[in-house]
Amino acid sequence: MAPDAIDADGDADRYRAPALDKGLDILELLSEQKSGLTRAEITKMLGRNASEMYRMLERLVARQYVMRSPEGDRYSLSLKLYALAHRHPPMNRLIAEALPVMQRFADAAEQSVHLAVYDRGNLLVIAQVDGPGAWGISVRLGSRVGLIDTGSGRVLLAFQTDEQRGHMLAEHTKVKGEVALDRAMVDTDYRQIRDVGYSQKDSQQTFGVTDVTFPLLGPSGQAIAALTCPYMRRIDEYIAPSIDDVTALLRETAASLSMMHD
């Protein structure tokens, strides 16, 4: 074994933090589960003592890294780590990767496009590209937009676990002008969107605009962001790409930025 490997092992032993390791083990295990786990399942899968797992789970719930199901018997990750990641440079890497791809879409579709992520109860627009030409509609970079009444919000809700969706809706805070929708309508919307894989719906903010939205999927199949084109149909003599053409282009763009591929 090389000397530096011995040193590395020595450092690993010297700086061990067993409690931190237990907490990280739980978070990493839950990150791989779509429906959460019971405490007994976590204890068995990690080969740990039941009482130490109980204490660790209680602290993770208290710090809001882990959520307990309404029945109290299952645990799953909250969106806290997801929210923390948005404040970290990896989000900048997502933006840097997305912008040139979004620009190619805007040029081909002759429409604007924006990228939004969930942030503290509603959505934050983190990237925006205008289409070419004199006409178009765009959402200002840095805007906070509604979780409930936008294509971006509905798509982000659609591609989450039940626990994460419940957390997002519980944390939801209305933005100025947001249209109120009842929970039954929201539930119907996200089920339909999940079935077809995207959303195409008349804008609830602006007449004459059809919002087309696709999810950017993470490795587990959950949406980490939503890519939306606020489609405006030309009625003059200029022949621009149709909404079907634009939808196909946006599907390809979102797939190329997703971390999960069919």
From TrEMBL:
GO terms for biological process: negative regulation of DNA-templated transcription. One of its GO terms (molecular function) is DNA binding. Residues 17-79 form the HTH iclR-type domain. Residues 80-262 form the IclR-ED domain. This is IclR family transcriptional regulator. It holds the Pfam family IclR_C. SMART domains: HTH_ICLR. Keywords: DNA-binding, Transcription, Transcription regulation.
